[in-house]
Amino acid sequence: NFGSLLGLCLASQVLTGLFPAMHYTSDIS
Q: What Gene Ontology molecular function terms does this protein carry (predicted)?
């Protein structure tokens, strides 16, 4: 249904935003 699809999109956006953020912070520190 639409709710699970929206949750999946949100989860994928959080993951794709989280991984580069961890890479950048580990590069800086």
A: electron transfer activity; oxidoreductase activity
